[in-house]
Protein backbone atom coordinates (compact mmCIF):
# COMPACT_ATOMS: atom_id res chain seq x y z
CA UNK A 1 0.00 0.00 0.00
CA UNK A 2 1.21 3.49 -0.75
CA UNK A 3 1.95 5.49 2.36
CA UNK A 4 -0.03 8.69 1.70
CA UNK A 5 1.96 10.57 4.35
CA UNK A 6 5.12 10.03 2.38
CA UNK A 7 3.69 10.90 -1.02
CA UNK A 8 5.59 13.70 -2.67
CA UNK A 9 3.48 16.76 -2.68
CA UNK A 10 5.72 18.68 -5.04
CA UNK A 11 8.07 17.24 -7.58
CA UNK A 12 10.22 19.42 -9.85
CA UNK A 13 12.56 17.73 -12.29
CA UNK A 14 15.14 19.58 -14.35
CA UNK A 15 13.01 22.72 -14.48
CA UNK A 16 14.11 25.63 -16.66
CA UNK A 17 12.53 29.03 -16.94
CA UNK A 18 13.81 31.42 -19.54
CA UNK A 19 12.38 34.93 -19.80
CA UNK A 20 12.80 36.66 -23.14
CA UNK A 21 12.77 40.41 -23.33
CA UNK A 22 13.41 41.60 -26.87
CA UNK A 23 16.70 39.88 -27.81
CA UNK A 24 17.77 39.26 -24.24
CA UNK A 25 17.30 35.90 -22.53
CA UNK A 26 17.30 35.61 -18.75
CA UNK A 27 17.65 32.09 -17.37
CA UNK A 28 15.77 32.31 -14.08
CA UNK A 29 15.70 28.55 -13.35
CA UNK A 30 18.42 26.31 -14.67
CA UNK A 31 17.69 22.61 -14.19
CA UNK A 32 16.10 22.82 -10.77
CA UNK A 33 15.22 19.56 -8.99
CA UNK A 34 13.10 19.64 -5.85
CA UNK A 35 10.86 17.19 -4.00
CA UNK A 36 8.68 18.20 -1.10
CA UNK A 37 6.77 15.63 0.93
CA UNK A 38 3.19 16.09 2.06
CA UNK A 39 3.03 17.97 5.35
CA UNK A 40 6.54 19.45 5.18
CA UNK A 41 7.39 23.09 5.89
CA UNK A 42 10.21 24.14 3.58
CA UNK A 43 11.88 27.53 3.41
CA UNK A 44 13.53 28.79 0.24
CA UNK A 45 16.43 31.18 0.61
CA UNK A 46 18.82 32.69 -1.90
CA UNK A 47 20.21 35.95 -3.22
CA UNK A 48 18.00 38.44 -5.00
CA UNK A 49 17.44 37.29 -8.58
CA UNK A 50 18.25 33.63 -7.83
CA UNK A 51 14.82 32.41 -9.00
CA UNK A 52 12.81 32.04 -5.77
CA UNK A 53 9.70 33.92 -6.91
CA UNK A 54 9.93 32.32 -10.35
CA UNK A 55 9.72 28.88 -8.72
CA UNK A 56 6.82 29.87 -6.47
CA UNK A 57 4.89 31.41 -9.37
CA UNK A 58 5.25 28.20 -11.36
CA UNK A 59 4.06 26.07 -8.44
CA UNK A 60 1.11 28.43 -7.96
CA UNK A 61 0.04 27.95 -11.57
CA UNK A 62 0.66 31.61 -12.41
CA UNK A 63 3.42 30.81 -14.89
CA UNK A 64 4.71 27.81 -16.86
CA UNK A 65 8.28 26.51 -16.99
CA UNK A 66 10.15 26.64 -20.31
CA UNK A 67 11.24 23.00 -19.88
CA UNK A 68 11.22 20.23 -17.30
CA UNK A 69 8.56 18.47 -15.25
CA UNK A 70 6.51 19.95 -12.43
CA UNK A 71 3.86 17.97 -10.62
CA UNK A 72 1.86 18.81 -7.54
CA UNK A 73 0.01 15.96 -5.80
CA UNK A 74 0.61 13.79 -8.82
CA UNK A 75 -0.89 16.31 -11.27
CA UNK A 76 1.34 17.49 -14.07
CA UNK A 77 1.09 21.29 -14.16
CA UNK A 78 2.31 21.46 -17.76
CA UNK A 79 -0.48 19.37 -19.20
CA UNK A 80 -3.41 21.08 -17.49
CA UNK A 81 -5.97 22.98 -19.54
CA UNK A 82 -6.62 26.60 -18.62
CA UNK A 83 -9.84 25.70 -16.77
CA UNK A 84 -7.99 22.99 -14.84
CA UNK A 85 -5.33 25.53 -13.91
CA UNK A 86 -8.02 27.92 -12.71
CA UNK A 87 -9.59 25.21 -10.57
CA UNK A 88 -6.12 24.30 -9.27
CA UNK A 89 -5.45 27.91 -8.22
CA UNK A 90 -8.79 28.22 -6.48
CA UNK A 91 -8.80 24.97 -4.53
CA UNK A 92 -5.36 23.35 -4.40
CA UNK A 93 -2.99 26.16 -3.59
CA UNK A 94 -3.05 29.22 -1.36
CA UNK A 95 -0.69 32.12 -2.10
CA UNK A 96 0.56 34.90 0.17
CA UNK A 97 2.40 37.92 -1.21
CA UNK A 98 5.08 39.92 0.56
CA UNK A 99 3.21 43.19 0.03
CA UNK A 100 0.60 43.18 2.78
CA UNK A 101 -1.64 45.42 0.65
CA UNK A 102 -1.76 42.89 -2.19
CA UNK A 103 -3.38 40.13 -0.18
CA UNK A 104 -6.76 41.65 0.66
CA UNK A 105 -9.37 44.00 -0.78
CA UNK A 106 -9.25 47.22 1.28
CA UNK A 107 -12.97 47.95 1.03
CA UNK A 108 -14.01 44.57 2.48
CA UNK A 109 -13.73 43.52 6.14
CA UNK A 110 -11.38 40.73 7.19
CA UNK A 111 -14.20 38.18 7.30
CA UNK A 112 -15.60 39.27 3.93
CA UNK A 113 -12.13 38.90 2.43
CA UNK A 114 -11.87 35.35 3.78
CA UNK A 115 -15.34 34.50 2.43
CA UNK A 116 -14.57 35.71 -1.08
CA UNK A 117 -12.68 32.63 -2.39
CA UNK A 118 -15.51 30.45 -1.02
CA UNK A 119 -18.05 32.52 -2.95
CA UNK A 120 -16.10 31.83 -6.12
CA UNK A 121 -16.58 28.09 -5.70
CA UNK A 122 -20.25 28.46 -4.76
CA UNK A 123 -20.29 27.70 -1.02
CA UNK A 124 -23.47 28.71 0.81
CA UNK A 125 -23.45 31.94 2.90
CA UNK A 126 -23.84 30.01 6.17
CA UNK A 127 -20.96 27.64 5.36
CA UNK A 128 -18.76 30.54 4.23
CA UNK A 129 -19.36 32.60 7.35
CA UNK A 130 -18.68 29.71 9.71
CA UNK A 131 -15.45 28.66 7.98
CA UNK A 132 -14.24 32.28 7.70
CA UNK A 133 -14.81 32.72 11.45
CA UNK A 134 -13.00 29.48 12.26
CA UNK A 135 -10.05 30.46 10.08
CA UNK A 136 -9.74 33.95 11.55
CA UNK A 137 -9.82 32.39 15.01
CA UNK A 138 -7.15 29.91 13.95
CA UNK A 139 -4.83 32.78 12.95
CA UNK A 140 -5.60 34.59 16.21
CA UNK A 141 -7.85 37.32 14.82
CA UNK A 142 -11.19 36.33 16.34
CA UNK A 143 -11.57 39.89 17.65
CA UNK A 144 -10.65 41.68 14.40
CA UNK A 145 -13.10 40.04 11.97
CA UNK A 146 -14.98 43.20 11.08
CA UNK A 147 -11.92 45.40 10.60
CA UNK A 148 -10.95 46.61 7.17
CA UNK A 149 -7.34 46.75 6.05
CA UNK A 150 -6.68 50.30 7.31
CA UNK A 151 -7.60 49.18 10.84
CA UNK A 152 -5.19 46.23 10.85
CA UNK A 153 -1.45 46.21 11.56
CA UNK A 154 0.98 44.73 9.01
CA UNK A 155 1.22 41.48 10.99
CA UNK A 156 -2.56 41.27 11.33
CA UNK A 157 -2.96 41.84 7.59
CA UNK A 158 -0.58 38.95 6.89
CA UNK A 159 -2.57 36.75 9.27
CA UNK A 160 -5.76 37.66 7.39
CA UNK A 161 -3.86 36.80 4.20
CA UNK A 162 -3.10 33.35 5.61
CA UNK A 163 -6.79 32.87 6.50
CA UNK A 164 -7.80 33.97 2.97
CA UNK A 165 -5.31 31.60 1.40
CA UNK A 166 -6.75 28.71 3.45
CA UNK A 167 -10.39 29.53 2.62
CA UNK A 168 -10.89 26.65 0.18
CA UNK A 169 -8.80 24.28 2.28
CA UNK A 170 -5.87 23.91 -0.14
CA UNK A 171 -3.35 21.18 0.64
CA UNK A 172 -0.50 23.53 -0.34
CA UNK A 173 0.40 27.03 0.87
CA UNK A 174 3.01 29.14 -0.94
CA UNK A 175 4.26 32.36 0.62
CA UNK A 176 6.69 34.76 -1.09
CA UNK A 177 8.53 36.61 1.70
CA UNK A 178 5.37 36.92 3.81
CA UNK A 179 7.33 38.52 6.63
CA UNK A 180 9.49 40.79 4.48
CA UNK A 181 7.69 43.97 5.49
CA UNK A 182 7.35 43.09 9.18
CA UNK A 183 9.55 43.78 12.20
CA UNK A 184 11.27 40.78 13.83
CA UNK A 185 8.75 40.24 16.63
CA UNK A 186 5.72 40.46 14.31
CA UNK A 187 7.47 38.24 11.75
CA UNK A 188 8.04 35.62 14.48
CA UNK A 189 4.31 35.66 15.32
CA UNK A 190 3.38 35.15 11.67
CA UNK A 191 5.86 32.25 11.44
CA UNK A 192 4.16 30.67 14.47
CA UNK A 193 0.84 30.87 12.62
CA UNK A 194 2.36 28.96 9.68
CA UNK A 195 3.64 26.38 12.12
CA UNK A 196 0.27 25.87 13.81
CA UNK A 197 -1.49 25.58 10.45
CA UNK A 198 1.01 22.96 9.39
CA UNK A 199 0.39 21.07 12.65
CA UNK A 200 -3.39 21.38 12.70
CA UNK A 201 -4.32 21.12 9.03
CA UNK A 202 -1.25 19.19 7.81
CA UNK A 203 -0.88 21.77 5.04
CA UNK A 204 2.35 21.55 3.04
CA UNK A 205 4.00 24.98 3.22
CA UNK A 206 6.75 26.62 1.17
CA UNK A 207 8.01 29.99 2.34
CA UNK A 208 10.53 32.28 0.67
CA UNK A 209 12.44 34.04 3.39
CA UNK A 210 15.34 36.37 4.12
CA UNK A 211 15.27 35.56 7.84
CA UNK A 212 18.75 34.47 9.00
CA UNK A 213 17.20 32.20 11.64
CA UNK A 214 14.61 30.59 9.39
CA UNK A 215 16.37 27.23 9.66
CA UNK A 216 15.34 27.01 13.31
CA UNK A 217 11.68 27.58 12.45
CA UNK A 218 11.08 25.09 9.63
CA UNK A 219 11.89 21.44 8.85
CA UNK A 220 14.15 22.13 5.91
CA UNK A 221 15.76 25.08 4.19
CA UNK A 222 16.74 24.90 0.53
CA UNK A 223 19.20 27.38 -0.89
CA UNK A 224 18.74 28.41 -4.51
CA UNK A 225 21.80 29.66 -6.32
CA UNK A 226 21.60 30.76 -9.96
CA UNK A 227 18.30 29.02 -10.56
CA UNK A 228 19.27 25.67 -9.07
CA UNK A 229 19.24 24.11 -5.60
CA UNK A 230 22.72 24.13 -4.12
CA UNK A 231 22.44 23.42 -0.39
CA UNK A 232 19.89 22.06 2.06
CA UNK A 233 19.77 22.54 5.79
CA UNK A 234 17.75 20.05 7.83
CA UNK A 235 16.68 20.64 11.41
CA UNK A 236 17.15 17.72 13.79
CA UNK A 237 14.90 18.10 16.80
CA UNK A 238 17.14 17.08 19.65
CA UNK A 239 15.18 17.86 22.77
CA UNK A 240 16.85 19.63 25.69
CA UNK A 241 19.96 20.77 23.89
CA UNK A 242 17.83 22.62 21.36
CA UNK A 243 17.61 21.89 17.68
CA UNK A 244 20.67 21.06 15.65
CA UNK A 245 21.13 22.03 12.03
CA UNK A 246 22.75 19.76 9.51
CA UNK A 247 23.86 21.08 6.14
CA UNK A 248 23.95 19.04 2.93
CA UNK A 249 24.97 19.84 -0.61
CA UNK A 250 22.63 18.70 -3.35
CA UNK A 251 23.41 15.92 -5.81
CA UNK A 252 21.25 16.61 -8.85
CA UNK A 253 19.59 14.15 -11.22
CA UNK A 254 22.76 13.99 -13.35
CA UNK A 255 25.05 13.40 -10.38
CA UNK A 256 26.38 16.97 -10.29
CA UNK A 257 27.30 18.60 -6.99
CA UNK A 258 28.27 22.19 -6.42
CA UNK A 259 31.07 22.63 -3.88
CA UNK A 260 30.28 25.75 -1.81
CA UNK A 261 32.62 28.60 -2.76
CA UNK A 262 33.67 29.12 0.86
CA UNK A 263 35.00 25.53 0.94
CA UNK A 264 36.55 25.72 -2.51
CA UNK A 265 38.41 28.89 -1.57
CA UNK A 266 40.13 26.96 1.23
CA UNK A 267 41.54 24.38 -1.19
CA UNK A 268 43.99 24.66 -4.08
CA UNK A 269 41.35 23.40 -6.48
CA UNK A 270 40.97 25.59 -9.54
CA UNK A 271 39.55 24.42 -12.85
CA UNK A 272 40.18 20.69 -12.47
CA UNK A 273 39.92 18.34 -9.56
CA UNK A 274 40.73 14.68 -9.05
CA UNK A 275 38.11 12.56 -7.46
CA UNK A 276 38.72 9.34 -5.59
CA UNK A 277 36.88 7.33 -3.04
CA UNK A 278 38.06 5.99 0.30
CA UNK A 279 36.23 4.46 3.24
CA UNK A 280 35.27 7.94 4.52
CA UNK A 281 33.60 8.96 1.28
CA UNK A 282 34.48 10.85 -1.88
CA UNK A 283 37.65 12.97 -1.82
CA UNK A 284 38.27 15.92 -4.17
CA UNK A 285 41.89 16.96 -4.70
CA UNK A 286 43.48 19.65 -6.83
CA UNK A 287 44.09 18.47 -10.37
CA UNK A 288 46.85 19.75 -12.65
CA UNK A 289 45.74 23.08 -13.95
CA UNK A 290 47.25 24.14 -17.25
CA UNK A 291 48.25 27.75 -16.83
N1 LIG B 1 8.65 38.58 -15.82
C1 LIG B 1 9.98 38.59 -15.98
N2 LIG B 1 10.53 38.97 -17.14
C2 LIG B 1 11.86 38.96 -17.31
N3 LIG B 1 12.75 38.57 -16.39
C3 LIG B 1 12.27 38.18 -15.21
C4 LIG B 1 10.86 38.17 -14.93
N4 LIG B 1 10.68 37.73 -13.65
C5 LIG B 1 11.91 37.48 -13.17
N5 LIG B 1 12.87 37.76 -14.09
C6 LIG B 1 14.32 37.56 -13.91
O1 LIG B 1 14.54 36.22 -13.50
C7 LIG B 1 15.53 36.15 -12.48
C8 LIG B 1 14.95 35.51 -11.23
O2 LIG B 1 13.96 36.39 -10.69
P1 LIG B 1 13.11 36.07 -9.38
O3 LIG B 1 12.09 37.14 -9.27
O4 LIG B 1 12.63 34.68 -9.44
O5 LIG B 1 14.21 36.22 -8.24
P2 LIG B 1 14.05 36.16 -6.64
O6 LIG B 1 14.97 35.10 -6.17
O7 LIG B 1 12.61 36.05 -6.28
O8 LIG B 1 14.62 37.59 -6.21
P3 LIG B 1 14.17 38.57 -4.99
O9 LIG B 1 14.82 38.03 -3.74
O10 LIG B 1 14.76 39.88 -5.39
O11 LIG B 1 12.68 38.59 -4.93
C9 LIG B 1 16.02 37.57 -12.28
O12 LIG B 1 17.18 37.76 -13.05
C10 LIG B 1 14.89 38.42 -12.81
O13 LIG B 1 15.36 39.65 -13.30
MG1 LIG C 1 11.25 37.31 -5.30
Describe the structure.
The protein is α/β, with parallel strands linked by helices and about 290 residues long. A hairpin with a 2-residue loop joins strand 12 and strand 13. Strands 6-7-8-3-9-10-11 form a 7-stranded mixed beta sheet, sandwiched between helices. The protein has a 4-stranded antiparallel beta sheet with strand order 2-1-4-5, with helices on one face. Helix 4 packs across helix 5 (about 155-165). The protein has helices at about 50-60, 80-90, 110-120, 125-140, 155-165, 185-200, 260-265; strands at about 10-20, 25-35, 40-45, 65-70, 75, 95, 170-175, 205-210, 220-225, 230-235, 245-250, 275-280, 280-285. It is built from 7 helices and 13 strands. It folds into 2 domains: about 5-265, Rossmann fold, CATH 3.40.50.300; about 265-290, no CATH class. The structure holds adenosine-5'-triphosphate and magnesium ion.
Amino acid sequence: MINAEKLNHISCEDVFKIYKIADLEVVALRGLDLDVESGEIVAIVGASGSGKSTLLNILAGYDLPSAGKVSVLGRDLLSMTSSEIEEYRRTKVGFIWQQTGRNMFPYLTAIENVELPMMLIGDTPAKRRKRAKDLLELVGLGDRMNHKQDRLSGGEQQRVAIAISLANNPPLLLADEPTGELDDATAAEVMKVFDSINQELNTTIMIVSHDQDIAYKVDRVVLIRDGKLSTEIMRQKSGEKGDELEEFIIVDGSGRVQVPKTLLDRTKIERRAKVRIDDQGVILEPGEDKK
